[in-house]
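Note to self: the last two entries modelled the partners one at a time, which told us nothing about the interface. This time every component goes in together.
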Amino acid sequence: MASNLYNKTGHLSRLIVRQDRIRIPLWLIGLTFFTLIVPPAFVSLYPSQADRNVMAETMMNPAMTAMVGPGNLENYTLGAMNTHQMLLMTALVVGLMSILLVTRHTRANEEDGRIEMIRSLPVGRLSNLNATFLVSCVTNFALALITGLGLYALGIESMGLEGSLLYGAALGATGIFFAGVTGLFAQLSESSRGTIGFSITVLIIAYLVRAIGDVSNETLSGFSPLGWVTSTEAYSSNNWWPILLLIGTSIILFILANYLNAIRDLEAGFLPSKPGRKYAAKLLQSPIGLAFRLQRTGTISWAIGLLLMGLSYGSIFGDLESFFEGNEMLVKMLASKEGYSMTEQFIPQLMIVMALLSTVPPVMAMNKLHGEEKKGRIEHLLGRAVSRTRLMASYLAISVVNGFVMLSLAALGLWGAGTAVMEEGLSLGMVYGAAIVYFPAMLVAISIAVLLIGFVPKWISFIWLYVFYSFVVLYLGGIFQFPEWVGNLSPFGHVPQLPVDEMNFVPVIILTMIAIALLIIGFVGYNKRDIES
Amino acid sequence: MSLLKVTNLTKKFGKFTALDGINIDVNEGEIYGFIGPNGAGKSTTIRVLLGILKATEGGAEIFGKDAWADAVEIHKRIAYVPGDVNLWPNLTGGEVIDLFVKLRGGNNKSKREELIKKFDLDPSKKCRTYSKGNRQKVALVAAFSSEADLYILDEPTSGLDPLMEQVFQECVMDIKKEGKSVLLSSHILSEVEKLCDRVGIIRQGKIIETGSLSELRHLTRSNLLVETKQTITSLNELQGVHDIVEKDQALSFQVDAEELDAVIKHVSQFGIVRLESAPPKLEDLFMRHYEGGKQTEAGAGGVS
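The predicted structure of the combined assembly is written out below.
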């Protein structure tokens, strides 16, 4: 019986290794590199214990504890520092690796129908699951050994053999634990999307429970596997019991997954797949609602991305002045003007990048109209009581609002982070104005997309070429010293560079008028041409 | 009264002539079968009717309005099912149906539920999980739950199973009873025969034949294959027998439906060993039109 269930597990393991012979080594190399590069950096950044104590001082606040977990701040040796700042984050990545690897070989394989073929061969019912577990355990064991020995080999005084091995073991055990979690969800969920979704949710909840527990109540952290990871206190107390706890729980998870796999049908799950809506929401029942709904996820992702970009640009404003003094290249790119600080002179340069990047999502939103046409779904709308003008206007409205929101978010992110890190703060009006002044240029880009869709939809990619051209000549123009007309070919080249330039309404108004003219022509063309199929 | 009138419609894509002077008339309360092989121009004609393609010459009028200029007005009274139903993978079938019904204007919730049940569709599933047949059901439910005056159906049953085809035919009969008109494009001849009052046949962008089913009597010819003990004689002297071909021991030929009785009586005298009968295929019809010049006698009975 047993041999029937597990027949050819070894063969399947070799198959998995063969499929992942690049993927697994890449994960291992990446994680090892990441783990081994940090301690030497700490050595050069904080050479004396006094330096490290200062660091410990700054780490001693609830926000930091919530983020990286508790640490041995009283005796903040290099080893303690490394465990405190790196272990939890690395463990998260290891958990993610296990989730992706296990899903790939269990539920995803089953969903695509490959397991059906495997199972028609003289292979045990549980062989694939256990082959996957075997490979992920070996992978994580190798990770533990390589990182552990690697850390010891760095030869840093406070990083002994036991602590190093424990550090590696904590990473490996986390990986094995999440292999078990994913193996279990691969049985419960009917789809690979669901398996990854549930497993990552467990990972995130484990992280959050630990964050709350570490700040407020240590018992709570005891319920989180990631809380166990930080309890190892590698290089300080060197506790091995959390490793045993992780491995023990993993074994229970493995057994549970095996049991569920044994009693279920192929391609079935235990959690019912969530049925979708039977009726359309009010919002969806119009061309504009549909256009928005189709792009919702992408739009939100772009919005978050641009906000983060603004934030990260803003966060460097704190030590911008000192940064510039050491970089001749950047100084060259800035047209240095008297009477303005380096930060103020840097803002227009950032704004061009942010404006051009913010132009990408609205142009994508507009091009979606043509994408839908190529996929043969525009007929559904035009075949009903929807005029071409209304259809195109719906996409245009979404595109224009999209562009405005993107530009605003990037500017607000820049201002928010900048004002937080700078001693004297930043003026919101100045930053926002410098960004929003690019809006008419963005409208021109959108209107060119409309024009192309209206007349020559085949050439729609031209708009990307144009945006890319604008980026090259305007952002890198300072280095290459292009003649002026090269930049003037782009609508973005006519925008006054606030706050260094004076505000000039003439180009802004002209750009807006050009955009409106192009839009009108584009609409006329769209109303005249055949719809592709 | 003519509800849909296509006059001398020509559509060119560059140098290629997709439609060459097409004329169609659909009267009120009539089901018009629009048949022809793949690539003959059925879908192109329908796209012109919907104002999605612009006619190169000639034009189409629906409800007395121009199909291109007054597209939106016309579409308020039209329900359309495309032959290749492409849907948004991340919306559910139910959401798509609601969207389609709403975009046309008007709403009929009870009919929607009834049709979903009839077509055995799960509206809570995402369109990416639907098969071709299920996507077609979504379009059909959306179309039939609209209170339209003209239904334009472009090969609506190509992905349906026989049971669902039956349901579809019932739905068409229902709307016919309500006095609505249908333009049904298809290449399933039996379906057209069952449902349609009048038929237009298109080939290479030209309407090659049009008329009521009784006018196109030859559409209802059966193909017979008969093997007899003795050689059949004087078969070609009988009325309504066409395309006699000798195959080994057997004879294959076509018989007009109303002459079938007489022909079988004649043939049975020779001692039937094997008798196979098949409905006429659309290809046969086209073949006859190709060979019309050579075999006038055997071939084109109903061709004017």
